[in-house]
Write a structure and sequence with these properties.
phosphate transport; 2 strands; two-stranded antiparallel ribbon; cell membrane; membrane; Phosphate_Transport_Permease; mainly alpha; transmembrane; 296 residues
Length: 296
């Protein structure tokens, strides 16, 4: 009887876990279907090519302009700038915590870094306005520091806890035999870290970077407050920009219901969804490449 009860319990939980997995996929598919459905209503009035390649976003003008190329480029340069800052800092900090920090220091650093993820994005945006923005304006001799660089710095700060935590777990999970074998042939600790530990932890590190990219692309309040919200084509990191997430957040609350402008925001959300999905798929491709390399 006990055996049958345990078997029935296993079958029940297997069904529950499978159902939750399919539920997540169904929710994701439902969101995508809703975005695409509403986007079609927009593309009945505006050609997709004109929407993607258009150089001006001004839906409230006398002759509305629905060109989202400045929004795409703005989102890309802010995210790229954030990752240039966050990836080396994040991986370096993770390597220090995993390999060099004493147990006492590690017990202080890791919880402190994880607590950074709990800071609300509106607080980070406020600090960007009152602290980072004046510093950038002073150093670059600008009228104000609300630009792409400001947004990139703040997004890097927000992405760091995720990158550090996941990368540190990946580095810590590398088998000790790998390091012992490296030390056994005369390698230093630095050589072992660079040529053995980090390559072995590469799948986990790439996953950490992809999570950081997803956090940066999808962030709204911080970039809304700190980047200037100018929907023009940026030429440098010192230009004010308007990201896709900020555009949706600013305009969705005021746009008339079921107008072309309303459906245009759904089209922006669809493009943003596709960009995020493409970034995750690219990361998954490299993760699988590294896994096959290690398996070989």
């Amino acid at each position: 009887m006990k055996y049958k009860a345990r078997l029935s319990l296993d079958v029940l939980f297997k069904f529950v876990f499978k159902a939750t997995g399919f539920l997540v996929l169904a929710l994701l598919g439902g969101i995508l279907a809703m975005l695409i459905y509403n986007s079609f209503s927009f593309f009945m009035n505006v050609r997709p090519l004109d929407f993607i390649t258009g150089m001006e976003w001004n839906p409230t003008a006398k002759i509305p302009k629905y060109g989202m190329l400045p929004l795409i480029i703005s989102t890309t340069i802010v995210t790229f700038g954030a990752m240039i800052i966050a990836i080396p800092l994040g991986i370096g900090t993770a390597a220090f915590i995993a390999e060099y920090a004493s147990p006492r220091l590690k017990n202080i650093l890791k919880p402190t870094i994880e607590m950074l993820a709990a800071i609300p994005s509106v607080v980070i945006g406020f600090l960007g306005i009152v602290v980072v923005s004046p510093g950038i304006a002073s150093l670059a001799d600008l009228s104000n520091g609300l630009n792409a660089l400001n947004g990139a710095i703040l997004l890097a700060v927000m992405a760091l806890p995720t990158i550090i935590t996941v990368a540190e777990d990946a580095i810590h999970a590398v088998p000790k035999t790998y390091k012992e074998a490296s030390y056994g042939v005369g390698a230093t600790k630095w050589q072992t870290l660079c040529k053995v530990v980090i390559p072995a932890a590469a799948p986990g590190i790439i996953a950490a970077v992809m999570l950081g990219v997803g956090r940066a692309i999808g962030e709204t309040m911080t970039v809304l407050m700190a980047t200037g919200n100018a929907s023009i084509l940026p030429t440098s990191m010192f230009d004010s920009v308007k990201t896709m997430t900020a555009t949706i957040a600013i305009e969705m609350g005021e746009v008339p219901y079921q107008t072309t402008h309303y459906f245009a925001l759904y089209a922006i959300a669809t493009v943003l969804f596709i960009m995020t999905l493409a970034a995750n798929m690219l990361g998954e491709y490299f993760i699988n490449r590294f896994r096959k390399y290690h398996a070989a």
